[in-house]
Design brief:
single chain, 324 residues, alpha/beta, Rossmann fold, Dihydrodipicolinate Reductase, domain 2, 8-stranded mixed β-sheet, 6-stranded parallel β-sheet, binds NADP nicotinamide-adenine-dinucleotide phosphate
């Protein structure tokens, strides 16, 4: 089988995780790293045994052997890089949040569709096996009818320039809250009817911590809390009429637990062993590209756009800097 060659753009924190994942995959590999600084690209390439290092993003995009460009820059820079890659005919996997706002997302998706080039959001929880496993548990009726959900995600990343800066698309929502909105959309098919929320802002004007309550049709309530200024336990719980389902880690669960009442565990469902969990999104891209698709079935463009619109709406309500 022809190797599936990934090129990484932006030699930062999450690029390291992707490079480490690709180094352990048998069905894909990292061919190239592109950085704004050649020496940084070379150091990164040496660390992860990557054959090609480029001192500009455009050089990586122009490499004819790169099958997929993984965009790992701050949100504020996703648009420009992805647009250039699509214009060069290169399929892209773009880190979450997909773009800085919904208008950028709509423009990139329209361009990809017009050019017939694949583009996908790297929201890894959408592509992991836990999604289908948990949906089957819910459909089995073991917790009765799901009625409420609670999910939280908090990491203290408040020292990071990318998180603090309005210009780089900072704040908790684009970094962490996006997972919570996806969590609800992955496990509930009912439409969101109402949203209420509150937000604490950082001194720079970005959203530091937020709570979001979603009312879904059919009498379902989801309460979500994200913070980039505290460390949380990052659990997710879906509660039904006869029990509840616990995700021990919302973004990378190691097991699912079905409980009836007072924390009595009725069932513990182990999840498949994985490299880091990033491999699934790479495989989803490879398969969709091979099938001639412009989007992956696990995260269709319409869904990426829907979430981007929700986040625009929330940031407008909060008066987040850049969204007043
Ligand atoms: N899926 C996940 O679990 C996960 C986790 C964390 C972050 N992310 C996402 O990944 C993306 C990058 O986050 P990160 O934590 O890896 O960020 P980071 O450590 O700050 O790295 C971002 C990289 O982007 C490049 N860049 C281009 N323009 C820049 C600018 N003006 N300022 C700073 N960097 C710039 C830099 O690479 P060069 O200097 O090499 O050009 C930098 O190293 C974000 O969209 C974030 O939401 C995803």
């Amino acid at each position: 089988m022809k190797p599936f060659n990934v090129g990484i753009i932006g030699a930062g924190h999450i690029a390291e995780k992707m490079a480490a994942t690709l180094a352990r995959m048998e069905d894909a590999s990292c061919l190239a790293i592109g950085s704004r600084t050649l020496s940084k690209a070379q150091t990164f390439a040496e660390r992860f045994d990557i054959p090609r290092a480029y001192g500009s993003y455009d050089e990586l995009i122009a490499d004819p052997d790169v099958d997929l460009v993984y965009v790992a820059t701050p949100h504020s820079h996703h648009f420009d890089v992805t647009r250039r890659a699509i214009l060069a005919g290169k399929p892209c996997l773009v880190e979450k949040s997909f773009m800085a706002d919904a208008s950028e997302a709509a423009a990139v998706i329209a361009l990809a569709r017009e050019k017939g080039v694949f583009v996908a959001e790297a929201i890894w929880i959408r592509y992991m096996p836990v999604r289908d496993i948990a949906r089957k548990v819910l459909a089995s009726g073991v917790i009765g009818k799901p009625v409420t959900a609670f999910a939280s995600l908090a990491y203290n990343v408040s020292e990071k320039e990318r998180i603090l800066s309005p210009e780089l698309g900072g704040g908790a929502l684009l970094d962490l809250g996006v997972y919570l909105l996806n969590f609800v959309r992955m496990y509930f098919d009912e439409p969101i009817e109402q949203i209420s929320s509150s937000c604490i802002k950082a001194e720079t004007g970005v959203d530091a911590s937020e709570s979001i309550t979603l009312t879904l049709s059919g009498g379902i309530l989801a309460t979500l809390q994200a913070s980039g200024w505290s460390q949380g336990d990052n659990q997710g719980v879906i509660a039904g009429t006869t029990g509840y389902l616990v995700f021990d880690d919302l973004i990378n669960p190691t097991r699912l637990r079905v409980c009836r009442k007072r924390h009595v565990v009725e069932q513990e469902i182990p999840l498949p062993e994985q490299i880091t969990g990033f491999e699934y999104q790479v495989r989803a891209c490879r398969d969709a590209i091979a099938a001639g698709l412009v989007e992956p079935s696990k995260m269709p463009h319409a869904e990426t756009l829907y979430i981007m619109h929700l986040m625009d709406r929330l940031r407008t309500e909060w008066g987040v800097k850049g969204f007043e």
